[in-house]
């Protein structure tokens, strides 16, 4: 698979300076005299041309101009979006908001990262937009939106696996995305309900080169005889397999199952932030105080509590301290709970266990990379995820020209409202 990795690049900074100087008082006086003299000549000229009443006319004209400006501004204020009004009080809609509350980035064994760059993502967006416009399921409510569809397509096309696999297919949109990335590569789909069942009620996608473990043939990912399945598909190198998880199971469980089977390349669609979601995610696991961007304060009078309280008013996925923290100030997972199976298998865990989970993930993690939002919220008008807990977008706020040139402005804002920190990980057995 083309999943080469590179060492993390060093951060670059840009510094600036100012230039200042003082003029002699004599020069200042002469300058002022020249300005006054010029002003008097202009005044005399206007008086000669228009008479002594020109000052009254000028005042009236200025007054009318001011009134017109106020009317124009008031009319425009009716059309200001909520994101614009939020930016006025300085808490959302600005590029500077991204990551202000911290982004807990899982630490890998060697500090490696992906080889693709922002430039590659921009080039990919340009190619993917017309593809996305042909999607068979236009309204994919409760499924992937544009951001994650692009992420899955981009990473799959870049990694070029010999076999693609998905756990959780819903109506088949993710299957369609995989097929657009790799037209001739076989797909395995594990999903309780076959996508063809949805065809009776509306648009769905069933792939001709896909083996479905669905309906009466459904087998959970952790119970598949992978040796037999891989042999059947002629796969001998498991590093050539890409697995996409969109099944809302405990991601620690899925990680361990994939590791045991020998798989290396995984994508988790719903990598929920701490305090949100219906399953235990890698982001929650790696949200540790010793990691830059990780850890939380449960004190009501803390800076974090005040910021969270404000942001909760504007972002659906923003959570305040009361929602984030449970008994004993338990903030890991969701109020100290490890959720799974669509919120059906909740289990209270101690911070000690949560910490040990983080250490285990670090011991097997080669690469961790969260998909950035496609564009800033002032461009997409999304209201769901909180930018303060996300990495910066591919297309930054304020770059409407680029947003438009890429064709992103053609989409309804609803397609951008499903971002949940999709993550790509590369794993291998711990050397310990």
UniProtKB/TrEMBL annotation:
<feature type="region of interest" description="Disordered">
    <location>
        <begin position="1"/>
        <end position="30"/>
    </location>
</feature>
<keyword id="KW-1133">Transmembrane helix</keyword>
<protein>
    <submittedName>
        <fullName>Uncharacterized protein</fullName>
    </submittedName>
</protein>
<keyword id="KW-0812">Transmembrane</keyword>
<keyword id="KW-0472">Membrane</keyword>
<feature type="transmembrane region" description="Helical">
    <location>
        <begin position="50"/>
        <end position="72"/>
    </location>
</feature>
<dbReference type="GO" id="GO:0012505">
    <property type="term" value="C:endomembrane system"/>
</dbReference>
């Amino acid at each position: 698979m083309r999943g080469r990795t590179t060492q993390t690049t060093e951060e670059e900074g840009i510094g600036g300076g100012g230039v200042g100087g003082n003029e002699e008082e004599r020069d200042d006086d002469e300058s002022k005299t020249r300005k006054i003299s010029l002003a008097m000549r202009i005044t005399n000229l206007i008086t000669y041309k228009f008479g002594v009443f020109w000052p009254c006319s000028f005042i009236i004209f200025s007054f009318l101009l001011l009134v017109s400006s106020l009317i124009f501004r008031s009319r425009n204020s009716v059309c200001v979006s909520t994101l614009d009004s939020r930016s006025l009080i300085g808490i959302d809609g600005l590029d500077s908001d991204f990551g202000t509350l911290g982004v807990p980035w899982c630490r890998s064994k060697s500090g490696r990262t992906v080889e693709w760059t922002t430039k590659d993502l921009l080039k990919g967006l340009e190619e993917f937009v017309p593809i996305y416009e042909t999607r068979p399921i236009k309204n994919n409510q409760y499924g992937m939106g544009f951001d994650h569809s692009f992420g899955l397509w981009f990473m799959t096309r870049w990694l070029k696996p010999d076999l693609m696999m998905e756990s959780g297919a819903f109506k088949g949109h993710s299957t369609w995305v995989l097929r657009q990335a790799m037209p001739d590569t076989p797909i395995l789909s594990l999903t309780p309900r076959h996508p063809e069942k949805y065809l009776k009620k509306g648009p769905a996608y069933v792939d001709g080169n896909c083996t479905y473990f669905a309906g009466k043939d459904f087998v959970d990912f952790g119970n598949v005889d992978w040796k037999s399945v891989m042999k059947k598909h002629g796969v001998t190198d498991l590093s050539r397999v890409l697995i996409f998880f969109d099944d809302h199971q405990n991601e620690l469980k899925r990680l361990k199952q994939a590791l045991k089977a020998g798989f290396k390349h995984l994508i988790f669609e719903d990598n929920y932030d701490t305090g949100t979601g219906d399953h235990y995610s890698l982001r929650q696991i790696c949200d540790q105080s010793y990691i830059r961007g990780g850890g939380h304060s449960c004190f009501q009078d803390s800076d974090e509590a005040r910021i969270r309280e404000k942001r909760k008013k504007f972002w659906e996925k923003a959570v305040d301290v009361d929602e984030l923290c449970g008994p004993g100030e338990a903030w890991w997972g969701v109020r100290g709970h490890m959720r799974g199976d669509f919120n059906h298998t909740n289990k209270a865990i101690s911070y000690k266990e949560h910490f040990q989970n983080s250490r285990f993930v670090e011991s097997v993690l080669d690469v961790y990379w969260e998909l950035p939002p496609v564009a800033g919220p002032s461009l997409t008008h999304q209201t769901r995820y909180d930018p303060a807990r996300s990495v910066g977008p591919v297309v930054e706020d304020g770059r409407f020209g680029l947003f438009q040139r890429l064709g992103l402005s053609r989409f309804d804002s609803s397609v951008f409202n499903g971002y949940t920190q999709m993550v790509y990980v590369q794993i291998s057995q711990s050397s310990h």
